[in-house]
Write a structure and sequence with these properties.
The complex is a heterodimer of chains A (124) and B (132). Chain A has helices at 9-15, 19-45, 50-64, 72-84, 89-123; strands at residues 6-7, 68-69. With 124 residues, chain A is mostly helical. Chain B has 132 residues and is of the alpha/beta class. The two termini of chain B are 26 Å apart. Classes of the chains: A mainly alpha (124), B alpha/beta (132).
C-alpha cells in the first residue's frame, strides 16, 4: 500500500485488516516524528555534542523504517553516521532541513491514512 | 506460536513498542513493556518472564548496561535478545560479550522473532531440567 511519498506496506502487512492497529501506529509515528524532529533541529542548531545528535538520529531512524517517508530513513542514516564519525557539522543543518521538508510534505498523506483508519474503526 | 511464553519488551520508541507488542499478541505471547533499563529491572525483580527483548540504544541505561546489571546484580540468566536497527551490531559479538543470547534487526518479521524465541526458551528449559 504505497502512495507517492509514504510507503505504509510494512504496517499493513502485519495488520490483518486491524484498522485500530494501523491508526495507532501511524498516529504514534506522527507524534514521534513531530516531537523528535523538533528536538533534532534544536540539537543541530545549538551545536550539541555529536553523541546527542547521533542518539536522536538513530532513535528517529528506526521509526522511519516502519512508516517509510521518502528520503527520511536515508537522511537519518547519513546524519547518524556524520555524528558517529564526528564530521561535517556544517552539513548537518541542511540535512535536517531536508528531513523537515520531507516530513512536512508527507504529513497530509499521513493524516489522510489516519483519518481513513479512524473511519474504519468506527464501522467495525 | 508463542503460547504461554512471557516476554518483557524493553524499548523507548513507542512506534517500535506498538509493533512488537502487536506482533507478540498475534503469536499468542504475553508481553509487558518497559521504556528504559530502570523500568526493565524493576519489572524483572517483581515478575517472571521467559525472555527479554532488549533495545540497545535507550536513554539512561542502554541495553548493554541493563543486561550487565541483570546478569551480575540480579544474577538472572533469562534469555535476552538484542534488538537493533544497526546491522553491523548484529554481525559483531558485542551483544554476546555483554551477556545477551541472540540479536535481531528491526523491523523484524514475526516468524523470525518466533524462531529465535522458541530456540532460546527451549535451550533454557533444557538447562533448567538438567539443573533441577
Amino acid at each position: 500500500m504505497s502512495t507517492q511519498l509514504v510507503d505504509f506496506s510494512f504496517v499493513y502487512e502485519m495488520a490483518d485488516d486491524d484498522a485500530t492497529y494501523v491508526y495507532e501506529v501511524i498516529n504514534l509515528f506522527l507524534k514521534t516524528l513531530s516531537d523528535g524532529m523538533g528536538k533534532l533541529e534544536k540539537l543541530v542548531n545549538e551545536g550539541a555534542d555529536f553523541s546527542e545528535i547521533r542518539f536522536q538520529a538513530h532513535f528517529l531512524k528506526s521509526s522511519a523504517k516502519v512508516v517509510k517517508v521518502q528520503g527520511m530513513f536515508d537522511g537519518f542514516f547519513e546524519l547518524e553516521n556524520m555524528a558517529r564519525e564526528e564530521r561535517d557539522r556544517d552539513k548537518m543543518l541542511p540535512l535536517v532541513s531536508m528531513l523537515m521538508n520531507a516530513f512536512t510534505q508527507a504529513r497530509p498523506e499521513l493524516e489522510r491514512e489516519i483519518a481513513k483508519n479512524k473511519k474504519a474503526m468506527s464501522k467495525a | 506460536m508463542l503460547t504461554g511464553i512471557r516476554i518483557l519488551v524493553v524499548e523507548d520508541n513507542m512506534v517500535n513498542q506498538k509493533i512488537t507488542n502487536f506482533m507478540l499478541k498475534k503469536l499468542d505471547a504475553t508481553a509487558d513493556s518497559a521504556m528504559n533499563g530502570n523500568e526493565a529491572i524493576e519489572l524483572l525483580m517483581h515478575n517472571d518472564y521467559d525472555v527479554v527483548l532488549m533495545d540497545l540504544q535507550m536513554p539512561g541505561m542502554d541495553g548493554y548496561t541493563t543486561t550487565e546489571y541483570i546478569r551480575t546484580k540480579l544474577n538472572n540468566n533469562i534469555p535476552i535478545i538484542a534488538v537493533t536497527a544497526d546491522i553491523f551490531v548484529s554481525e559483531s559479538a558485542e551483544y554476546f560479550n555483554s551477556g545477551m543470547n541472540a540479536c535481531i534487526c528491526k523491523p523484524f518479521e514475526p516468524n523470525h522473532l518466533e524462531e529465535i524465541i522458541l530456540n532460546l526458551v527451549k535451550v533454557e528449559t533444557l538447562a533448567s531440567k538438567k539443573a533441577g
